[in-house]
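Sat 14:20. Reprocessing the chain from the morning session after the first attempt stalled halfway. Input below, unchanged.
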Amino acid sequence: GINAEYGDDYDPYQTDSNDNQNIQEGIVSPIEQNPLVDVGASGRPLRLALNTNQYGRTFQDRSHVYRMLPRTTAMAGAIIHNLNVRGKRGNIVQTYPAVEYDFIPNRATISTEDLVHIQWTGSNTHNNQPNGGDGQTGDAGEGRGGTDRSNFLEMQGEIENYPAPYENTTFWSKVESLTTPTATAKDIAVSMFSSGYYCGAAVVNNGVCDDAGDQVLGTGTDMNNLLNNAPASYFGHVLKFKEAVTVPYMCSRNNNFSNRYSTAKLFHLQSYSSFRL
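Finished this time. C-alpha cells:
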C-alpha cells in the first residue's frame, strides 16, 4: 500500500537487502512479486504487475562529478556565462533520445561587463554497440570510434562553415584570459583549436605552458588532425572582452555530413544598456 509519509510502498532510504523476505527469520519484505490485492470484491483479488527486480535500482545513471573552482580577484562580481558542448557521438538516430553534438548556447548575447567561460567535457569510452538501446547502434562521426572531441575556431562568416586562418581572425585580439592572464591572443586561439593539446603558441615558463608535459605549438609530437590525441575534456579559458565583437565559430571535427553541423555565434554588446534594448 501507499505509505502516507513517504508517498511510496516503502521508505527508499531505510530499506535495503536486510529487508529481503525471510519467513524463517520472521522478515516480511515490504514488497512482493506480482502481489494479489483485495479490493473488497468478495474474495476476488486482483494481481498487480510488480517486478521486485526493478525496485531499488538506478537506470541509466547519468550522474557526473564536477569541481567548482573559486573565482580569481579579476572575476569577482561579474556574471560568468558557461559556453560548452552538449550531445554525444553519433547521428540523429544513434544518439536518440539524446542529441548530436552542439554548442550550448549556440546563440549567445552578452555584455562587455560579463565574462564567458569556454570549456567542454568528453569521453574516450563512448560505447553504442549492439544493443543500441533506445537509439540505433553505431557512433557515426569523425576520428577514432568511441571518442568525443571538440574545438573552437572562428569562421570566415556565419554562412561559410569554414574556419578562418588565425591571421584573418578578429575575435582573439579582442579578448583576454582571466584564468591565464599571461596568455596572448595566439596562445588562447591555439589552445582552443587544439582542445588543449597545445597549451599555447608561446615559449615555456611564461605562465601559460609551465606544467610538465605541456605541449607548445611546433614542439613535441604533432597534434592529430582529427584531434585523436587531444584531451577529451578541456578546461578552457574564462574570457573578458576588451571591446564589442560578434564571432561565428565552429568545431572542425564534429562537422560530418551525416551529423548536425557544429557551428554557433557569439554576440558581444558594448554594455548592459544596449543589451537590454
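The two ends are 56 Å apart (CA to CA).
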